User: Fold these one by one.
Assistant:
Number 1:
Amino acid sequence: DIQMTQSPSTLSASVGDRVTITCRASQSVSSWLAWYQQRPGKAPKLLIYKASSLESGVPSRFSGSGSGTEFTLTISSLQPDDFATYYCQQYNFYPWTFGQGTKVEIK
Amino acid sequence: QLQLQESGPGLVKPSETLSLTCTVSGGSISDTSYNWGWIRQPPGKGLEWIGSIYYSGDTDYNSSLKSRVTISVDTSKNQFSLRLTSVTAADTAVYYCARFMVSFGGRGFNIWGQGTMVTVSS
């Protein structure tokens, strides 16, 4: 199985900060990677698909980059609604696997 | 707009079978642009993909659960279902159903149900 490793596990930041989360795959997943946001008690929400494509309706402050084994999710200017946990997911190989999550906390 | 809703028992006894159904409303489960998946999340932990099914009935399962999992589809009812046998406390989790867009190589799980908590306990 492909292991997805996110860093950091927890991130403390302030409103307006630029935030970057990294996701590394144990082998190449090409660009078949998605990013999700999950608020407490809620279902995950798709932010980015195919590594860098912004899902419809998602604010443009979210962006994704990378290919192969290393990917990043960037929030250009953190907003109050963005304090949540973020997950990457590869869908190049079965079983599809998720990273362990990165919790973005208020500093 | 398309919505997904999970239903099923919230409490299952150890060694018994967990059965959940996801009802699709506002769209057709037979749309060939999508497949339909189950994902679970133990309390305080991360997400685990369980498996997915196409309207045709073709399935893919997580190898870690494959011997215990069956996902089926009922196009007449616009539903798909999950069965997980021989459950233990480790299967206690929030179970989500979700739609995955397969067009253009794949675009992620873009619609999710609200999730249903299943506790395995005697």
Note: The interface with chain B takes residues 1, 32, 34, 36, 42-46, 48-50, 53, 55, 87, 89, 91, 94-101 of chain A (CB under 8 Å).
Number 2:
Amino acid sequence: NAGVMQNPRHLVRRRGQEARLRCSPMKGHSHVYWYRQLPEEGLKFMVYLQKENIIDESGMPKERFSAEFPKEGPSILRIQQVVRGDSAAYFCASSPTRQGNNLNTEAFFGQGTRLTVV
Amino acid sequence: TQLLEQSPQFLSIQEGENLTVYCNSSSVFSSLQWYRQEPGEGPVLLVTVVTGGEVKKLKRLTFQFGDARKDSSLHITAAQTGDTGLYLCAGRNQAGTALIFGKGTTLSVSS
């Protein structure tokens, strides 16, 4: 059973270009989370998605960032018109379908995409 | 706002020593999780603690959840160089929609 797969592992973009980060959750997982990590700042929550639905995007910047999790295919985090400040490691995590009101469902992380904006 | 404060931020010790790292909050969490992250990799889940006062052991690692479910600690006995890494604690936000992470403790174990 493969883990959470993210690609690419490394991505270099020039300022103003678009960055697309992909995440395939673990088999049987229908919940996807995106996090951004900067050195010494910890993991910051960005967005929580289920298939075809955005559940919580409270951590997403208001502009240039968007995320989707289509019925078929991987989840995509899209950053338009990248700036140097977008350089970071972006992690995706997935968890299985929540059962009832169980809020203790564990999340499993991918290896991340390291975005460098030059 | 729910926050998780981890201490110390950095810890450098010799192989064979014992250590404890802490995760504290003013908020109550239904559960807390501990992850370990190595450079260039994603966080790997070590344990989830659910019940106030719970103690879980994973080989040389002992995890404790405070009685009030506001804090947790990780104790490592006889540290090894392979324990080197970033240790993160995390808890679900009240809506249950996200894991909130502390900034982590960077542990360096030298031989």
Note: The mean pLDDT of chain A is 91.
